[in-house]
Amino acid sequence: MTYLLNSIDDAIDRKFLVTKTVAGQAEAGTLVHIMGGSQDGTGVSVDYRVGNTYEDFNIKFNTLKEFSKWARPDNFIVRHYDKLDKFDIQQYIKVSSASFTTFCLPILIVALILIWLIALLLIKPVVVKFIFGICMSILVAFLVFRFYHNRRMKMLTKLYSKIGSGWAGGGISIN
């Protein structure tokens, strides 16, 4: 996903959230301000400043898509960066980057293989095997999806409550 970037010029003078660490430059979970960039036949060159150390670096990518995998625009984190710690931001990156195919599908495939092996080896009547296998497959698919959804919602709720905890003006009481 290139986050609607048609060229590196669209990223200049914007803040991006780093999702993959570059040794000695920026680690995952930090904000970078894109200062400049150029795009030619050999790739994309980006000049950026790390938000917390104010150091300037240059990095080269083969394509704009690789740049988008390294850093992405994230207005939520940019607005609330000072209220979050590094662990929360890295958890946010992990959960928001997870998709059904990267998180749920491997678990689902293993569970379905085990269910069908148990059904085929331990249950004797053929009709009961298929009814059991189909019912358990649907149940496992639902449970894995709910686990994925609940995990994502818990993490986002934790972040939102951490940000919103001081919203009321620091304990102002109205008499």
Summarize the structure in words.
The protein has a five-stranded antiparallel beta sheet. The longest helix is centred in the last third of the chain and has 39 residues. It has two domains: 74 residues, SH3 type barrels (Roll); 67 residues. The protein has five helices and five strands; from the N terminus they run ββββαβαααα. It is an alpha+beta fold. α3 runs antiparallel to α5 and α4 packs antiparallel against α5. It is elongated and about 70 Å long.
Please report the first level of CATH classification, the CATH class of the largest domain: Mainly Beta
Instruction: Give the ordered list of helices and strands.
Output: EEEEHEHHHH
**Backbone shape:** elongated
Describe the largest sheet: 5 strands, antiparallel
User: Mean of the pLDDT scores?
Assistant: 83
Strand order of the largest sheet: 4-3-2-1-5
SS field, number of helical segments: 5
Q: N- to C-terminal separation? A: 52 Å
